[in-house]
Design brief:
Number of helices: 6
Structural class: alpha+beta
Helix content: 10-25%
Strand order of the largest sheet: 4-3-2-1-6-7-8-9-5
Order of helices and strands: HEEEEHEHEEEEEEEHEEEEHEH
Number of domains: 2
Strand content: 25-35%
């Protein structure tokens, strides 16, 4: 696919996914097993897609189509990363069958393309394939693919690169020229971004409150002005560390959604640290972060956006509504390493003598 055509296809997918389902997109002629040079993914009407599954030996991800976009079922229905899904589907659509490797079922285990049923109903790492399925609203498969091992050099194979795949209904193992990276951990399909990427350059002030510690307030008069702490510039202020704090806020990501039924005590949220970021255009994001990390090395948080009373811009109000809808009622885990760096002590923001 030419670069211009690829760019147009990606843009079209992103636009269509944003309104809910990927609309009808011709992905090439139907592919038959063993037809070298044919598309791996045939023509598919994605308006009929209601569910996407990626099932591996150790974990599975189920994506559910909703009016506002795809969601991750195993993560409490939290929004999925639409761009990641679009990229994966586009990669499938671009693949051509490079070779027919074997039609001998005895070889399928070595290639990692056995079905679980063929393996005695036992899922087994590097032997049974990752099953990728697109299903309609009745549960009927619209597309299925077993994704197996990467091709690597061995005593009998001098070439390497590409990946073994198989259509479950066919008795032929195929080779494609690239690796699909079909992740089955549902956490990897979350829409992980918390704050907008452009927020950092617009921060007017950041307030940090840690249980049992003095409130810290960082502020600046303009976006290009130096940072102040506690309303002034104490001697030896480490402005670089304040810049680092703003970058940490910008880069925060959802690691996972809190397990269902978790209590404040079990989630380490009996005591909360608070981080508030205010912007020059009247937005405020407040993060309430658990003081203690759990056994899973996450610290659990909530977030909400509010607007100053002076904000009248309709687009800004709509953005805030969408943000709050995404995180409404959600308690989510932030990796402890990232969360703890938001709550440095006051001395960390002063130059060492």
């Amino acid at each position: 696919m030419k670069l211009k055509t690829l760019a147009i296809a990606v843009a079209a997918l992103a636009l269509l996914a944003g309104i809910g389902l990927l609309a009808k997109w011709k992905l090439g002629a139907p592919a038959a097993a063993g037809r070298v040079g044919q598309p791996l993914m045939g023509a598919l009407d994605m308006t009929q897609a209601a569910r996407i599954e990626l099932v591996g030996p150790a974990s599975r991800t189920t994506l559910i189509a909703q009016p506002a976009g795809w969601t991750v079922q195993e993560q409490g229905g939290f929004p999925a990363d639409q761009g990641k899904l679009n990229t994966f589907l586009l990669k499938l659509a671009e693949q051509k069958i490079a070779d027919t490797v074997s039609d001998n079922p005895a070889d399928f285990g070595d290639l990692g393309v056995l079905t679980v049923a063929e393996n005695g109903n036992k899922a087994e790492e590097r032997k049974t394939g990752t099953l990728f399925r697109i299903l309609d609203g009745s549960g009927k498969p619209l597309y299925q693919l077993l994704i197996g091992r990467d091709r690597s050099q061995s005593m009998t194979v001098s070439a390497y690169g590409g990946q073994y795949v198989r259509f479950p209904q066919d008795k032929a193992a195929l080779l494609i020229g690239t690796t699909l990276y079909a992740e089955t951990d549902p956490k990897e399909w979350l829409d992980k971004a918390i704050l907008p990427a452009e927020a950092e350059k617009n921060f007017r002030s950041i307030r940090v409150e840690r249980p049992g510690a003095k409130l810290l307030t960082f502020s600046r008069k303009q976006a290009d002005s130096p940072w102040e702490m506690d309303g002034g510039t104490p001697r030896g202020l480490n402005a670089q560390e304040i810049d680092n704090l703003s970058k940490k806020l910008r880069d925060l990501q959802v690691g996972q959604i809190a397990p269902a039924g978790g209590t404040p005590a079990s989630l380490g949220r009996a005591k909360l640290g608070v981080v508030e970021a205010h912007t020059f255009d009247g937005r405020t994001w407040r993060l309430d972060v658990g003081e203690l990390k759990g056994a899973d090395n996450y610290r659990y948080a909530t977030v909400r956006e509010t607007l100053d009373g002076s904000v009248s811009d309709a687009a800004q109000k709509k953005q805030a509504e969408a943000f709050n809808e995404k995180f409404k009622g959600r308690v989510f885990g932030i990796p402890d390493w990232d969360a703890s760096r938001l709550f440095h002590e006051r001395k960390e923001y002063l130059q060492s003598k």
